[in-house]
Design brief:
mainly alpha; 3 helices; 0% strand
């Protein structure tokens, strides 16, 4: 019987992996918000009428959503990687 080892999530390497996933998600959210603004004139008009705060809220919402999703996906990947080894 193998000795039970601790999860890689609770190590410095696991934290760095999770931060990397979060940063990738944030970058993806920022790219998606830019693509959405450039490809959809209705969104661009809404943001233009809303002012600077509307742009900030729109971008931060997408960036945060993508970052949280990528972090949760990273948790699943790290746990699946633990089970395989």
């Amino acid at each position: 019987m193998r000795a039970k080892k601790s999860s890689d999530l609770i190590s410095p390497t696991g934290i760095i992996k999770l931060m990397t996933h979060a940063m990738m998600g944030a970058a993806l959210g920022l790219a998606f918000s830019l693509a959405l603004i450039l490809s959809n004139p209705a969104v661009a008009n809404l943001l233009n009428d809303g002012g600077r705060q509307a742009v900030i809220v729109f971008t931060l919402t997408l960036v945060t959503t993508f970052a949280i999703g990528a972090t949760l996906t990273g948790v699943v990947f790290i746990l699946a990687e633990d089970k395989q080894s």
